[in-house]
Amino acid sequence: MPQSQLSLGSFAIGSTVKGYADIAKGTCSGRHTHPGIETSYILEGEITLKIDGQPDQHLKAGDPLQIPAGTVHDACATGSSGGSKALTVHVIEKGKPLGSPAP
Fold it and tell me: Quick one: pLDDT at residue 5?
């Protein structure tokens, strides 16, 4: 995944990681978290975004989404015609992993 470094003056504070998510029809990404904010844009299909403590969100192509750092979430491809595709951008603190599985 492409990365860009973020800095504040001469101090490196982290990086942005740009990615592409492809979720097959009827499957989910799996419950997980990110140590930084996630901003995504649905390119194709439909998803149900499940965020702990919130009602499910139904999103379709053209919809944006943003998930705060440390939030447990899961994305499921729910469209009738196929899977879903999304452009993702994560802002990750220096030295932290992109994501971690959640129970």
Answer: 57
State how far the Cα of 1 lies from the Cα of 89, in Å rounded to an integer: 10
Could you tell me whether strands 64-67 and 38-44 are parallel, antiparallel, or unpaired per DSSP bridges?
antiparallel
List C-alpha distances in Å: 30 to 2, 27, 43.
23, 9, 20
Q: Are strands 32-33 and 11-23 parallel, antiparallel or unpaired?
A: unpaired
Distances (CA, A) of 18 to 7, 30, 53, 57, 76: 17, 19, 27, 23, 20
User: 7: number of CA atoms within 13 Å, CB side?
Assistant: 6
pTM confidence score: 0.84
* Cβ burial, residue 80 (10 Å; 0-12/13-18/19+): exposed
